[in-house]
Amino acid sequence: MRFGSLALSAPAKINLTLEILQRRDDGYHALRSVMVPVALADELAFAPATRFDFTCDPPALTAGNLVVRALAQIGLADAPLAVTLRKRTPVGAGLGGGSSDAATVLRAAMQGELGPVGARDWIADARALGSDVPFFLADGPALIEGTGERVTALGAPPPWWIVLVVPPVHVATGDAYGRLAASRAAAPPPTRPRAESLSIRCGEALQRHDYPGVLATMTNDFEPIVAEIYPQVRAALDALAGAGAARPMLSGSGGSCFALFANEEQARACASAIRTPPGATIAVVPFARGGAWR
């Protein structure tokens, strides 16, 4: 390592929009989504060592971890590094924690923090690790299209806050896609031209820091299906609505739910009024401000 020990944060994300479009010939679904990093983050530490070692807290998440896979993707699987991951972002909750961990490794390598790795196609590396990983390379809000590889940065985020409710449920993304496909086979939705996309309008409103405009365009195609299948998700959405949130929404394929607020005072007032569903956890955090958009 060129700079000795290194400590990095890997922020979670929320989806202000998530539109699932047609299924492609390669089996992947096209999508449009406006994603925003939030100030809830895993902690990654790298230190010089005599051989490669990886430690995860909790240990149950060590096997197959995306941090190790990301290092292998860029040829550092056997680098003399002691790598420590402390998970703070709930796992399997639609918040992109594992993808952010992988992207944090790639960004550190891109900046030369992990030693020489040579010229690479970093987007291809990110895409190989997961569809959400390219987004986290943008280090800020972005419009995501294709199957996740088309990333349009949307600039510095507004100083807005979210109240996050994480119910005790794991929603399998593949199952959510399967149920959405079955629903659409029974009742095909109308086509959605890009010019009429809520994600495009939401991204434009976000760039203007237009809070009502963003609220009016927030959408998630998974939400009605996931809320119907998982009563814990329905309870989280209802808890936010009961506390006065204007537009509670599912993040990703869930099960985390959130509400958006224009300032910290409003967010904390909502959080204090929530009747927490059994087993759920609550966090109040701002949009994250990455170093690329200060």
TrEMBL record:
One of its GO terms (molecular function) is 4-(cytidine 5'-diphospho)-2-C-methyl-D-erythritol kinase activity. The lineage of its organism: Bacteria, Bacillati, Vulcanimicrobiota, Vulcanimicrobiia, Vulcanimicrobiales. ATP binds at P90, V91, G92, A93, G94, L95, G96, G97, G98, S99, S100. It comes from the Bacteria. It catalyses: 4-CDP-2-C-methyl-D-erythritol + ATP = 4-CDP-2-C-methyl-D-erythritol 2-phosphate + ADP + H(+). Keywords: ATP-binding, Isoprene biosynthesis, Kinase, Nucleotide-binding, Transferase. Pathway: Isoprenoid biosynthesis; isopentenyl diphosphate biosynthesis via DXP pathway; isopentenyl diphosphate from 1-deoxy-D-xylulose 5-phosphate: step 3/6. GO terms for biological process: isopentenyl diphosphate biosynthetic process, methylerythritol 4-phosphate pathway; terpenoid biosynthetic process. Catalyzes the phosphorylation of the position 2 hydroxy group of 4-diphosphocytidyl-2C-methyl-D-erythritol. SUPFAM superfamilies: GHMP Kinase, C-terminal domain, Ribosomal protein S5 domain 2-like. Belongs to the GHMP kinase family. IspE subfamily. This is 4-diphosphocytidyl-2-C-methyl-D-erythritol kinase. Its EC number is 2.7.1.148. It holds the Pfam family GHMP_kinases_N. The gene is ispE. Residues 204-275 form the GHMP kinase C-terminal domain. Gene3D superfamilies: 3.30.230.10, GHMP kinase, C-terminal domain. Residues 65-137 form the GHMP kinase N-terminal domain. The active site is at K13, D132.
